[in-house]
Design goal:
Layout lengths: L7 H12 L8 H13 L4 H7 L3 H34 L3 H14 L3 H13 L5
Protein name: DUF2379 domain-containing protein
Organism: Myxococcus llanfairpwllgwyngyllgogerychwyrndrobwllllantysiliogogogochensis
Pfam families: DUF2379
Length: 126
Amino acid sequence: MSETVDWGPIRELARRVFIEGTRLALTTEVKALLKRTASEVGISDTEAESALATEEGALGLLSEESRRIREGSRRLMDALHRMYQHKDKGDFGSAREEMRGVLKAEVVPHYRALAQGQLEAMPDEP
């Protein structure tokens, strides 16, 4: 399973920038946060470096990171809910398909690892 991630700081930055309208200041700390988060959400170092060259690019990077975290979380949670419903009915094939669906769509390594762990922990069908 992947290591624990702390997306609180990136969520807070996105809230300040996109909801409160605070200007994105490309400090050393903000650049480091954006670059670290990029690798955690499946964005290459090359893409992140390129985006961090301009304020517009950094805004786009922050937006994409936030989107991947938000949508990946929603995708996984919805699939887990359906997976447990299937498991409760004894339908492990459909439960497995829920996690396989996440793996087909998901790019965030942390969410992929959680889905893979659920898939591997599922008992074989009788």
